[in-house]
Amino acid sequence: MLARVLRRSLGDAGSRSSRCGYASKMTHTDEETGEARMVSVTTKAETHRRAQAQGRIVLSKEAFAVLEANELHTAKGNALVVAQIAGIQAAKTTSQLIPLCHPLMLGLIDVRLALNKATSSVDCKTTVETKGSTGVEMEALTATSVALLTVYDMCKAIDKHMVMQDIRVIEKQGGKSGDWQWAPHQ
C-alpha cells in the first residue's frame, strides 16, 4: 500500500530526483509491500566514513548563568561533562535505538559542547568516523540529540522551558553517494 502511494506521488522519476539529487524512494521499505526492511550492505565496499551533526538547546538566562559560572555540579555531576559522555554512549548504541540502523564499529566519536552567550544556549557539534560499508549520519545525530537531552535533564530543576533546536547533519564524507554539506534550501 505504502509503495503504491509513494509511486503515485513520485511518479516515474527513477531512483534519483533531477531537482535536488536526493533519492526519490525510501531505502528501508520494500518496494512491493511497503514493509520495513534492513538494507543489505554486504556487497558495498568499506571506505572511510565521516559525519558531523549539530544542534543546540536554548536555556533561560538564569540557567545559562548557572552553567556559565560552572556552578551546576549536581548529584549527577557536571552538566556538560555528563552530556558529553552521554552523547558518546548514545553514538555507540544507535543501532539499539533506531531499529533499521546497522551496528557499526566506530573509530571516532567527538562530542563538543559549548556555551553560547549570544543565544543563551548550549551548542553541540558531533563528529563520528568509521571505516565501513555504511555511513555514520545516524550515529552523529543520535549523539547530538542525547547530549542535548542530557543538558535538559541536568538543568530541568532551574528551567523547564528549554528548547532543543536545529539538530541536523551538517556534513558527510565517504560512500557511494559521495561528500555532502548542509546548505539551506533555496
UniProtKB/TrEMBL annotation:
Natural source organism: Hesseltinella vesiculosa
Phylogenetic placement of the source organism: Eukaryota, Fungi, Fungi incertae sedis, Mucoromycota, Mucoromycotina
Name of this protein: cyclic pyranopterin monophosphate synthase
GO molecular function, one term: GTP 3',8'-cyclase activity
GO annotation, biological process: Mo-molybdopterin cofactor biosynthetic process
PANTHER family, A to Z: MOLYBDENUM COFACTOR BIOSYNTHESIS PROTEIN 1, MOLYBDOPTERIN COFACTOR SYNTHESIS PROTEIN A
SUPFAM superfamilies cross-referenced by the UniProt entry: Molybdenum cofactor biosynthesis protein C, MoaC
Pfam family, one: MoaC
Molybdopterin cofactor biosynthesis C (MoaC) domain: residues covered: 38-175
